[in-house]
What we know:
alpha/beta, Aldehyde Oxidoreductase, domain 4
Amino acid sequence: MDITKALESPGVRGIIVGQPFPMTGEEIKDRPPIAYDKVRYHGEPVAAVVADTALQAKRAADLIEVTYEPLPVINSPKEALISGAPLIHENLSAYEKIEHVYPEANTNIADRTKIRKGNMDEGWKKSDVTVEGSFSLSPSDHIAMETRCVIVKIRPDGYVEFTSATQSPYMIKKLMKDYFKLEEGTVIVNAPLVGGGYGGKVAVQLELIAYMASVAVGGRPVKLQNTREEDMITSPVHIGMEADIKLGATKDGILTAAEMVYRFDTGAYSDKGATISRAAAVSCTGPYHLENIWCDSLCVYTNHPYATAYRGFGHSELLFAFERAMDMLARKLQMDPLELRLMHFYQGIRHLHKPALMKVRLEIYLIAWPSLNN
């Protein structure tokens, strides 16, 4: 990378490029705030220009000369898990991580959560019918009306003040201590009314770059704001997922066994992906009670923009897949899909006290009345 011409551009106060430290990430520290040595997704920041105006910064950024060596691209979790697939993170085993995450060295698996319950052989023996299906959801974007934006300054007294379109002001304080060794009490975060978030503004990304930019210009206020395109391809996105589901049931529709593999597309970095895949594993059959369950929920690296929280936090994705499998089961049983679900719904609430049970039954019948009436 050659930044010589950019530094000479009018209005430029400083340019920051990727460094090996700090490595960031809430569960696995696998991400430099600005790409260092390797770019892992289209849209990943490779430099940040600090200038007097946004136009001057853009003109200078266009003068930065970068020579890239093309690398193989992993476009889906299934591709990432093929034997011999290129590794997104060659040094995965060396990353610092929290206790409850289990990256698998020399693979593209950032985490794997296993759920085992009952006896699968017995479950399949009791199954009069079985169905199998594969389902997928592509990564997408939150598309909040307001794009991500942050202003940061370092005051003369050493306090660092953020004004950020964030959903997680206290996480900013915590991570600034973790990554930059700042005392939490010296980090002030102002969070004005946020113009939509839906989980997308939980991630701490622009705040880190803006802080480093402010440091580079002596603590002066720095504003960093995404364009709409940058908000979609540079900042974190809604996670994608691939699912393989096999269900067994009696001829009366009682579920006897469920085998599931959920492959969550965490993108180039784990960030919230490991947490989301773990949350999905815990509720891997959604609202349905089964005695025999086998589930692997994987957080898989790809060359997509990395994932963060989204409304539902993994549950809506797995339920999309699981409910489609339930539809397949209903068709095979020649049973009304709502009737099949109501049967299991009542099984799930049988522990409730009678008044609560009657209320729930009344509400579900009111909702289901048009279908039941037919």
